[in-house]
Amino acid sequence: QVQLQESGPGLVKPSQTLSLTCTVSGGSITTNYYHWIRQPPGKGLEWIGYIAYSGGTAYSPSLKSRTSISRDTSKNQFTLQLSSVTPEDTAVYYCVSDRLDWGQGTQVTVSS
């Protein structure tokens, strides 16, 4: 069974870059699509983007200008970078496989 685990800082200052890593076990990141999804407090789920098994990426149009997803196949990890963050980027961030395996989520708060 594929397991995903998010890691990264829980607090980021406004205007800085949020960086999260998802470590995948039980499966290879070169054989599936992997997504980043977030849920702001009191709101629904928001898709951020994905990295494909080929390494190709796609992003939400509303976040595309600030988002980058990359991977390290040697570590079976993929990383989200979201630049120029504001308090509106405060959310629980999840990594998810296209088979609907979910990480437990990690809270990120944007605050000075």
Number of strands: 10
- The helix-and-strand class reads mainly beta
What strand line-up does the widest sheet have?
Answer: 2-10-9-4-5-6
Shape: globular
Quaternary structure classification? single chain
Short description:
By secondary structure, this protein is mainly β. It has strands at residues 3-7, 11-12, 18-25, 34-39, 46-51, 57-59, 67-72, 77-82, 91-97, 106-110.
Could you explain how this protein is built, in words?
A hairpin with a 6-residue loop joins strand 4 (34-39) and strand 5. The mean pLDDT is 97. The protein has a 6-stranded mixed beta sheet, with no helix packed on it. The protein contains no helices and 10 strands. With 112 residues, the chain is an all-beta fold.
Helix and strand topology:
Elements: E1 3-7, E2 11-12, E3 18-25, E4 34-39, E5 46-51, E6 57-59, E7 67-72, E8 77-82, E9 91-97, E10 106-110
Parallel strand pairs: 2-10
Antiparallel strand pairs: 1-3, 3-8, 4-5, 4-9, 5-6, 7-8, 9-10
Give keywords:
112 residues, mainly beta, six-stranded mixed sheet, four-stranded antiparallel sheet, 0% helix
